[in-house]
Amino acid sequence: MTYYKFIALFLIWFISFSSAQVFSADQTQLAQTAYEQHIIPAYNRLASETTKLKTQLTQFCVQPTQKALDKVHESYKSALLSWAGVEHIQFGPIVEDYKYERFAFWPDVNGRGLRQVQRVLAKKDQTVLSLDTLQKKSVALQGFTALEFLLHGTNYTNLIADDQTGQFRCKFAKTIGENLAVMAAEVQRGWQKNSYYSDAFLKPKINKIYARPEEVTQELFQSYVGGFDKIIDMKILRPIRKSEKQRANFKRAAYWRSGLSMAIIRMNLLALTDFFEIGGLSKFVSSQKPSVSQHVMRSLQNEAKELQRIDTSIQNIVYNLEQRSALRDITIRLKKARTQSAQAIIEAANLTIGFNAQDGD
After folding, report:
1. Non-local CB neighbours of 293 within 8 Å, separated by 6+ positions
2. Rounded to two decimals, what is the model's pTM?
3. pLDDT per residue as tens digits for the range 59-107
């Protein structure tokens, strides 16, 4: 081998090695930023709000008045919106022991979960009044969707009736509130620094959950893109349908009984916006395509404002042609922002993912 050929090969190796080191460092920083600026604050809010909800339910069951019920409804809304802020994060401690499904059994396509709640109420099944036994039961009985029916569903005013029916319903709701707070605290602890999961997330290596930084980036990517898909396909288009020829049905919407369907959608989008802007994705994309990063940020901010303008009950929207059209227009723009940012993330991370720019279109 000649001296010059050796030098050339060395330079090629050195440049490749250096690029790989920078590439890896960028993805390590992405994980660190997402962890500190997005994941931890979001789960802290969930733990705080579910604890407040548990407290409100406990106090309400001692003295069930209409004024106290109003406070419970407000606390339920705040806790549910905090759940909407982490709903896109489908990895980590939240997926252990089916916690994700236990927090919210939705969509309940065939109404199976609803029927379970109704049967419990009809039979006054005492086993749901203990946290230990409730946690062993169906996921449909343990979280926000079951609690919504108890607080807002058929005969919810029984809650303020001083009889066996009202007392049972209230105790059932209180146990669910306790379960939500316990699970949120468990997830919060699971993400603490130096825990098994945070260590694997921030310092991936062989024999851990993640072997390389690229695997962590892929997890973040899938949650980001999946969050858009859930908003577009499940939260918006499922109740209003994809075209005017299809029949709309507001009962397909999430949390329609509590009137929070649109608030949940907007919070889902704000969470993804925070993920992109604050959680490190924007800076990550900017390293390759700054113009794309800026465009996506503006788009997400604008669509959140548009959702606020039509933030009314889903029941009103499905029967209003103009409102339905406005929502469909939002989904089109969200698909574009999702596709642009997803492609930019793939290129910046050099991920090998089967993402098609036409997916969902």
Report:
1. 282, 283, 285, 286, 341, 344
2. 0.90
3. 999 999 999 999 999 999 999 999 999 999 999 999 999 999 999 999 9
Q: Residue 244: what pLDDT?
A: 65
Q: How far is CA 290 from CA 31, 34, 187, 202, 294, in A?
A: 20, 19, 34, 25, 6
Q: Is 303 exposed, middle or buried (0-12, 13-18, 19+ CB in 10 A)?
A: buried
For residues 299-317, give the mean pLDDT: 91
**Position 261: which residue type?**
S
